[in-house]
Amino acid sequence: MPIAGPEDAFRSRFSWAALPGGPPARIIPPMRVIAIVNQKGGVGKTTTTCNLGAALAALGRRILLIDLDAQAHLTFHLGVDNSTLERSMYEVMTGRASVAETLVQRAERLDLVPSHIDLAGAEIELVSQLARERILTDALAPCRDRYDYVLIDCPPSLGLMTLNALVAADDILITLQPHVLALQGISKLIETAGLVHSRLNPRLRIMGVVFCMFDGRTTLSSEVLADVSGYFSRASDGQTLMAGTRVYETRIRRNIKLAEAPGFGQTILEYDATSHGAADYRLLADEFLAHESDKAPKPAAAAAPSADTVAPSPPTPPVESPPSDAPPETEATAAPHEAVPPTESPDAADTSAVADPSAGAVPSLSMDADATAAQDCPAPASAAGEGASHGPMAV
């Protein structure tokens, strides 16, 4: 039956699968905001933001990249000279410009909000502003119908800029280098995300962990991978923040082309589409979208098998009979097996079942487990223009 009236415009922006006889299971917004976070530097946040965004854009998704780091490495990586820009992320955060006014169209379906060193002073300027942790959320609100994904490159700290990203985000993507030092700050990051989840943004989730600069030939990489995988598999059982958190099977291997691409102001797909780095980020984009489709609500027809499994329970007659009649029936079935040795008696089976609970203990991660408790946007005015460069850049 067609929907008429103002609900038509609303429902065209959302999709859901209704539960049988109940309200919608889950409303999926048209735009998902993903904060790529790790307070340790040099673990692949900027590289992943840039190249995962480019790979998703190549698959037809509309992507907005936000450089929230005052070092402006993502801006440099994409070949944008921020010294020629009149507006940047600093003007957005201080209320002097909107996201639409700062957009740089870097490629088809790939836009960028560049950063500038002035962003480093924004935290001091905003110290007395009310609700300063929601500035980015309000700035993104007019763009919710224009993009499929917003990827935020967060600074290597847990300051006001990262807090704004966590409040605006739907999901957290953690990039991790398989080194012991890279593990040290994870517990603090999870603790901060837990506080944001409980007090400011209840929809926030840790969607997964991506290993960068991974070398499977080393024992350390394998040990860190196993340790992190075990930790998140255990934590996802009882923590809403980490429900469904996964360690992505795609590991970003060490590749010199990934290190060379920023010097030419290009993504890895532009710089060398045949490199291992390009292949890894394509695989990561595929796995990322597959994970997103897994989180989508299942059709109502999927509930049918559960009804079928309940139906085949007509063995109710034996249950209705007195309990005293049940033992003779079991004895009757056991009678044909009198030739079996006495070691298969029910008592022996019970003792063997009791002897199994000694399951092997899962190795614990060297983190504090207690820490886990605790937005119509016009099209970009112009392309990258004079700011864009595809030749070698002077670092």
Descriptors:
18 helices; 8 strands; eight-stranded mixed β-sheet; Rossmann fold; disordered N terminus; about 400 residues; alpha/beta
Overview of the molecule:
The chain is α/β, with parallel strands linked by helices. It has a domain at 30-296 and 367-374: P-loop containing nucleotide triphosphate hydrolases (Rossmann fold), CATH 3.40.50.300. The chain is 37% helix and 10% strand. Strands 3-4-2-5-1-6-7-8 form an eight-stranded mixed β-sheet, sandwiched between helices. The longest helix has 20 residues, at 276-295. The radius of gyration is 27 Å and the shape is globular. It starts with 5 loop residues before the first helix and ends in a 41-residue tail after the last helix. Residues 1-28, 298-376 and 382-390 have low confidence and may be disordered.
Layout of secondary structure:
Elements: H1 6-11, E1 32-37, H2 45-58, E2 63-67, H3 73-77, H4 89-93, H5 99-102, E3 104-107, E4 110-113, H6 122-125, H7 135-140, E5 149-153, H8 160-168, E6 171-176, H9 180-183, H10 186-199, E7 205-211, H11 219-235, E8 246-247, H12 256-260, H13 268-271, H14 276-295, H15 304-310, H16 316-320, H17 326-334, H18 346-354
Parallel strand pairs: 1-5, 1-6, 2-4, 2-5, 6-7, 7-8
Antiparallel strand pairs: 3-4
Helix pairs in contact: 2-14
